[in-house]
Fold:
Amino acid sequence: MDLYFSPLACSMATRVALYEAGAEANYLEVDPPTKKVLNDGSDFRTVNPIGLVPTLRTDEGVVLTENAAILQYVADRFPQSGLGAAAGIDRTRLHQWLCFIGTELHKGLFIPVLDRKAPQEVKAYVLEKNLSRLDYLDNYLKGRDYLLDHFSVADAYLVTVINWTMATPPIELAKWPNVRAYYERLRTRPSIAKAIAEEFELYKVEQARKKAAA
Structure:
């Protein structure tokens, strides 16, 4: 299968899941500004017209988009990994957390704060309105190791999003000690540590490339 990704973007969650499952995949880096696939120079929009990562092409040639859907596919494709949840209320809760991370944290909180073109008053409004999501998460994680009763694709997504706090100074994890402890504990997990290290190196190359092109 082929995973189209950009370094340290939300697509890193799928990399973590694939590493956790011990799955083989081709990792195809997409340059965000140009939408070019760096491996071969092709136009990523011929694969995903919206031009967003992650995008996954399965072994059968089916193209999947949207983080929550891709993560659930990986969990179902590799059931021995334990990344998913059994049918019924457990699977519903997994879907609940994937939706919460994607809407309340990823899009609702972090993307506006990370957007360099967003006016400061917009960022201030977003922080005032949506930091309560981290309050909720901090309370939930008290006394818990994972979002479910085991490591799942939801944890892979959450760690990926929390990792963005290194680029969002207004969101200081010290204010949410349970979230910070969760993040610090999980980032040492082999699949996560490997993914962060590899993508951070690619991110540095990406930044150098942008600097040279400026």
Remarks:
- Residues 89-190 form a domain with the Glutathione S-transferase Yfyf (Class Pi); Chain A, domain 2 fold (CATH 1.20.1050.10).
- Strands lie at 2-5, 26-31, 36-37, 55-57, 63-65.
- Residues 111 and 149 are 29 Å apart (CA to CA).
